[in-house]
Design brief:
Elements (H helix, E strand, L loop, with lengths): L1 H11 L3 H6 L14 H16 L4 H20 L3 H20 L3 H35 L15 H17 L8 H9 L1 H4 L7 H8 L7 H35 L6 H32 L17 H7 L2 H18 L5 H18 L4 H30 L6 H23 L3 H13 L5 H8 L1 H15 L2 H13 L2 H18 L13
Helix pairs in contact: 3-4, 4-8, 5-6, 5-7, 5-8, 6-7, 11-12, 11-20, 11-21, 11-22, 12-17, 12-18, 12-20, 14-15, 15-16, 16-17
Length: 508
């Protein structure tokens, strides 16, 4: 009787309305890796994973269910669009493979290409095109009320890689709808990548899906690293400095605008690579390996090298499925054909990021950098040979410095909400610099300054040091790993803003 009364008293303290809200879509309360509810979500998944360890089938269906719920929490009823995309691409892949003639194969392939790109263009670019048409015709056309589904660029490119690989004959379609659903729904990378290939992911489902001790140790390291970079560094400097400057750049001096540009460069790196680290770590704990997305991008010695190091899953996707086919079509134009293929590819890179002229100009800058670099490569090499710089550390440092600042210029455009804002940032840097403000800024933004330096230090840390720390955590007993992870979560809770910051690339 006493126990029953105690239970009733306990139930009175539970707010079932709030509890229910945790499990329904709320735009103001989405499910991010850095939220406390995600910890509950993920530990619940791991618990079911453990309970169903006797049946891989049950583990996979559990993972599908949790992945679908994760996407629902972040996108609401747009999970139905993901559902539709998954089934259409699965069956089109099968039909393409089984088609008897090349003509039918081509019709099916271009049909699914049109469906995928049509959906992407409708949700991302319809209002952009309406606005352009309205301005060109001096009209006043009303924009449509279109909401961009979270992650549509990423899961559309995943689906496209599947049907493209089948069409060109480099893989056979899976006959198992369950496996393809898991590939499309897999929650660690559905919102912001990495854009994994079906040819790499699907075979893993046939494995044990049991992480080794080494996998678990690396996962703990990656999750800790990702949380620190995303929440402690990126979110803090973004909210407390970068956002303020880019909102109204004319209120700040050129020094502050330049510092905000350097800060944004490390913010977006820590934000995106931090998310990727967490995605890789979470996937590893579930028995899957995703491709890495970053390789010290600010050590790049050229813009081409930068794109081999930054957002690797996107750049390799475009290299394989867009640049190489274009280069083949333009091969008669020789080096100019390659330059044209580069120009088109990176114009699309800019446009992929969103429906704004800033992204178009961002793509134009990178395409111009790459095309000019290709066309002048022979002359630059001859010049370096002549002054005996080829192969020297001096040349490498010079190339890294120049490449970083070329990227910095495009980062300013990328971050700005309009071309006017970008122009104001450049104006302040070149026309209203006021170098004396630097030391005043340090005293007023000491925490931000320290975190910017820490962010760059973590970025440039030698691979050997990074691997040594990773090895130490991997070799540590599981209770030590648990303590380290708990301490990192505690640190994140202490510095986390009341206003949760989504990953920047969720917008793309």
């Amino acid at each position: 009787m006493i126990g029953f009364l105690d239970f009733n008293r306990f139930m009175q303290y539970i707010d079932f309305n709030k509890l229910q809200q945790l499990f329904v879509y709320d735009p103001a309360n989405q499910l991010y890796f850095s939220t406390s509810f995600f910890l509950f979500f993920f530990f619940s998944l791991l618990l079911f994973y453990r309970i169903f360890s006797f049946s891989k089938n049950l583990k996979i269906y559990t993972l599908i269910f949790f992945s679908l719920f994760f996407y629902y929490k972040d996108s609401g009823y747009f999970f139905l669009l993901l559902f539709l995309s998954t089934f259409i691409n699965f069956y089109f892949g099968s039909w393409i493979y089984k088609s008897k003639t090349d003509g039918i194969r081509r019709i099916l392939f271009f049909s699914i290409l049109l469906i995928n790109l049509g959906l992407l263009i409708y949700f991302k670019y319809t209002n952009f095109f309406i606005q352009i048409f309205s301005e060109l015709t001096s009209g006043n056309i009303q924009l449509l009320n279109i909401i961009l589904p979270v992650g549509i660029s990423f899961y559309t490119f995943k689906a496209l890689s599947y049907v493209i690989e089948i069409f060109i004959g480099t893989m056979e379609p899976t006959n198992n709808l369950r496996d393809f659903v898991l590939y499309m729904y897999f929650f660690p990378n559905i919102l912001a990548g990495p854009i994994d290939r079906a040819v790499a992911f699907l075979p893993q489902i046939g494995g044990d899906l049991v992480p080794t001790k080494e996998d678990m140790g690396k996962a703990v390291f990656l999750i800790m690293s990702g949380l620190f970079k995303k929440v402690v560094i990126a979110d803090y400097i973004g909210l407390n400095f970068v956002d303020r400057v880019f909102q109204v750049p004319l209120r700040f001096t050129g020094v502050e605008n330049l510092l905000a540009s350097y800060a944004y460069s490390i913010q977006i790196y820590c934000d995106f690579s931090g998310y990727t680290d967490m995605a890789l770590g979470i996937a590893s704990l579930l028995g899957f390996k995703l491709m890495d997305n970053f390789n010290i991008p600010f050590l790049a010695t050229s813009i081409a090298d930068y794109w081999r190091r930054w957002h690797i899953s996107l750049s390799t996707w475009l290299l394989d499925y867009l640049f190489k086919p274009l280069q083949m079509n333009f091969r008669r134009m020789r080096i100019y054909g390659s330059a044209l293929a580069i120009f088109i590819t990176f114009l699309i890179v800019g446009f992929w990021h969103g429906a704004n002229w800033t992204f178009v100009v961002f793509g134009l800058f990178h395409s111009t950098y790459l095309a000019v670099s290709l066309l002048t490569q022979k002359y630059r090499k001859a010049f370096y040979d002549k002054i005996h710089l080829t192969g020297t550390k001096t040349l490498k440092v010079f190339q890294i410095f120049v490449t970083f600042h070329l990227v910095l210029i495009t980062a300013i455009i990328f971050r700005s909400d309009s071309l006017k804002t970008a122009r104001n940032v450049f104006h302040q840097i070149f026309e209203f610099f006021h170098g004396a403000v630097f030391f005043q800024w340090i005293s007023g933004y000491t925490e931000v300054f320290v975190l910017i330096l820490l962010g760059y230090a973590l970025h440039f840390i030698p691979k050997s040091v990074d691997n040594k720390v990773k090895s130490m955590i991997t070799a540590a007993p599981i209770y030590i790993q648990a303590i380290l992870l708990a301490l990192m979560i505690l640190l994140v809770v202490q510095v986390e803003s009341a206003q949760l910051q989504p990953v920047i690339y969720f917008n793309f």
